[in-house]
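Project outcomes to date are best conveyed with an example. Our students and postdoctoral researchers have been running inverse folding experiments weekly, and each run begins with a structure described purely in C-alpha cells. The record below, which covers 297 residues, was selected by the lab manager from last quarter's runs and is presented without edits.
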C-alpha cells in the first residue's frame, strides 16, 4: 500500500513537471504540495501519506533512531521502467513532521545547450571548465538548477581527473569519482581535500558550500593549484562574493584564488524550464573585490 501511494506521488509530480513534493504533518492534519513552474500546488492528501513519509526516511537511508535532527539522503526509484534519482529531506519537531522529496533528473538534460539558449554564456562556462586552476562557483537560489549546470558541464570535460566531495551524493556520473562525507567516521570536507590532494586530481568538486568549513576547504584546494568547482546559494552574482565573506573568508583570500561566478535563475520559456545565466569572470570579480576593499577603508 505504501509503495503504491509513493508511486502515485511520483506519477503526479512527473505529470505536473514538479521538481519537489512537499509533505507536512501536524497533529491529525496533513498537506501535500508540488513545486511547479507556477509555484506550490496543493494536491489531495490521504491518511497513508504519513506512512509514505516514514518509508521515504528508510529509502533515503536516514537515521531512523533520530527524530529531532534535520536529515537528508538520496535514493533511486523506478517508475514505469525509468529510473528517477531522488533526494529526501526530513525535519521534525515535537508536533510536526515535514519532508521534501526532490526529483533530480526531471528534465532530460544531456548537454549545457539543453540548459540555456545563451550561447555566449554556455561557451564561456566550457572555457572556464578547461582552466588549470581557480575557483568556479555555480550560484543561485534553491531549485535554480546550479548543480545540474555544474555537473552537466563537468561530464563533458575529457582527459582530466575529476573528484567530488558531496553531502550527500545526489546522482552518479560515470566519468567522475564521487566521495560522500561521513561525519560518523570522521570523513569531512577538510579531510576529504587532504586525501584528494594526494590523488593527483585535475578538478576538485565540492558539492555545496553551506558553511565556513566547506568554504575553507574550497580555498585550500584552490591554493594548491587545482581547479575547484562548487555550488552556493546566493541571490545574485555579486552577492555571491558577500556570501563568501559571511563564511569567514577574507577579501585577500578571494583576491588570490581567481574567482569566477556562474549565477543562474530558473525561468519559464515556452512552458519549459530554462536557465538565465549571469557570469562574472575573475577580472570582473576582482573589480568587485577591489571596490569592496575601498568601501571598507
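After processing, the design step wrote out the following sequence:
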Amino acid at each position: 500500500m505504501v509503495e503504491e501511494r509513493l508511486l502515485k506521488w511520483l506519477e503526479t509530480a512527473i505529470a505536473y513537471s514538479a521538481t519537489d513534493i512537499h509533505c507536512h504533518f501536524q497533529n491529525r492534519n496533513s498537506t501535500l504540495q508540488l513545486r511547479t513552474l507556477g509555484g506550490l500546488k496543493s494536491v489531495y492528501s490521504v491518511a497513508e501519506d504519513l506512512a509514505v513519509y516514514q518509508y521515504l526516511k528508510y529509502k533515503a537511508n536516514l537515521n531512523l533512531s533520530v527524530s529531532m535532527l534535520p536529515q537528508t539522503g538520496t535514493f533511486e526509484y523506478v517508475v514505469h521502467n525509468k529510473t528517477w534519482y531522488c533526494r529526501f529531506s526530513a525535519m521534525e519537531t515535537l508536533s510536526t513532521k515535514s519532508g521534501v522529496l526532490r526529483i533530480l533528473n526531471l528534465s532530460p538534460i544531456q548537454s549545457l545547450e539543453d540548459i540555456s539558449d545563451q550561447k555566449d554564456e554556455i561557451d564561456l562556462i566550457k572555457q572556464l571548465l578547461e582552466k588549470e586552476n581557480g575557483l568556479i562557483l555555480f550560484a543561485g537560489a534553491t531549485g535554480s538548477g546550479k548543480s545540474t549546470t555544474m555537473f552537466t558541464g563537468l561530464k563533458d570535460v575529457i582527459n582530466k581527473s575529476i573528484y567530488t566531495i558531496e553531502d550527500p551524493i545526489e546522482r552518479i556520473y560515470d566519468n567522475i569519482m564521487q566521495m560522500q562525507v561521513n561525519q560518523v567516521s570522521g570523513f569531512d570536507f577538510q579531510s576529504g581535500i587532504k586525501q584528494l590532494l594526494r590523488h593527483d586530481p585535475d578538478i576538485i568538486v565540492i558539492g555545496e558550500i553551506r558553511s565556513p568549513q566547506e568554504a575553507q576547504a574550497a580555498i585550500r584546494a584552490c591554493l594548491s593549484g587545482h581547479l575547484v568547482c562548487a555550488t552556493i546559494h546566493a541571490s545574485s552574482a555579486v552577492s555571491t562574493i558577500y556570501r563568501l565573506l559571511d563564511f569567514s573568508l577574507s577579501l585577500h583570500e578571494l583576491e588570490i584564488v581567481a574567482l569566477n561566478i556562474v549565477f543562474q535563475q530558473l525561468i519559464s520559456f515556452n512552458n519549459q524550464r530554462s536557465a538565465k545565466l549571469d557570469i562574472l569572470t575573475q577580472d570582473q570579480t576582482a573589480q568587485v573585490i577591489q571596490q569592496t576593499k575601498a568601501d571598507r577603508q
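The chain has a mean pLDDT of 92. The domain at 112-296 is CATH 3.40.50.300 (Rossmann fold). The training component of this project remains on track.
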